[in-house]
Amino acid sequence: MIGAVDIGGTKIAVGIVDENGRVLAKVECPTDVPRGFPDAMRRVSEMLARSADQSGTKIGGIGIGCTGPVDPVAGSLGNVNLLPGWEGGNPVEKLSAEFGVSAAMENDADAAGLGEAVWGAGKGKARLVYVTISTGIGASVILEGKVYRGAGECHPEIGHHIIEPSGPRCSCGARGCWESLANGPAMVEWIRANAPASYQSPDLSAKLICARAQEGEDWARRAVEREAYYLGLGLANIVSVFTPDAMVLGGGVMKSADLFLDRIHQVIRENCRLVPFERVEIALASLGPDVGLIGAAQVWWQHFGA
Question: Tens digits of per-residue pLDDT, 201-225?
């Protein structure tokens, strides 16, 4: 059985996953970044032990998916915007030593992409791009079942390719990144900048905007139309560059996929005429809220499995 760890900027999920991708037990806690990396590892260790007890199993290896830049070879964290102060921490070393088993780590988008490629909507696809659209946009390229890596074994940051050079400033420092224009908060920011005061509310969120759009509210529908256009534009670029067998879309925004998919398909048709775009399947992620844990387990299998 594999101990799976999914480290995000908001929460850490830990569980036990079997060889068929089934989550046998899981627990969660807030990431609580200011408490620091050592404290987070202490809590992860406790949750792993608790999960093993709950499932009545013994941990045979540990797979980790973590937000932001990570070094999958050394097992260390890079300059992760969502985890300030954690740079240089090494979850692989810490957890491997704690439990006496092998451990491996990938960027969380790569981990989720591996999970969908092996056990989810991308199963059987030789060339797969997994995209998660939520607070940020993360993407993973899976070729013949393996994560594509760039120079220095890096994870390509597809969410930060430039869509509009004069667009909004992104957290990465550039202007007009795909993430800055098409993540969930981009809808909120557009509403706040354009809708009348009577429409504003302190609890405005992407989820609320999508719900209002479903009800036919005009400003919400405009925000969704803009979001779908920019999502489509980024996905069209992926189609033109990679022409994969499939693109699997996940993340919180895709819980309202019916609002976006028609426009996404239209934008791809309009912008990908030099490649056989019609052969690129667009599917929704199928592993649900456990995709992070299932993907983390697959990270271990990729590194150490037979």
Answer: 888 999 999 999 999 999 999 999 9
- Burial-class residue 145 by CB neighbours within 10 Å (0-12, 13-18, 19+): middle
**CA distance linking residue 253 with residue 230, whole number of Å:** 13
DSSP class of residue 168?
P
Helices (H), the chain: 37-55, 91-99, 108-119, 178-182, 184-194, 206-214, 218-242, 261-271, 291-304
Distance in angstroms (rounded) separating the CA atoms of residues 193 and 48 = 44
From the list 128, 96, 162, 108, the residue with the least C-alpha distance to 245 is 128
Between CA 53 and CA 34 the distance in angstroms is: 29
Hey, what domains does the chain have and what are their CATH numbers? 2-113+289-304 (3.30.420.40), 124-286 (3.30.420.40)
Q: Which residues of 114-131 are buried (b: 16+ CB within 10 A; e: fewer)?
A: bbbbbbbbbeebebbbbb
> How far is Cα 165 from Cα 221, in angstroms, rounded to an integer?
25
Place of tokens 């990679």: 242
pLDDT digits (tens, 9 = 90+) for 139-148: 999 999 999 9
Global confidence as pTM: 0.90
Indicate the DSSP class of residue 157.
Answer: -
Per the CB < 8 A criterion, the answer to whether 238 and 244 are in contact is yes
pLDDT of residue 55: 94
> SS3 string of 46-98?
HHHHHHHHHHCCCCCEEEEEECCCEECCCCEECCCCCCCCCCCCCHHHHHHHH
Question: What is the reported pLDDT for 51?
Answer: 96
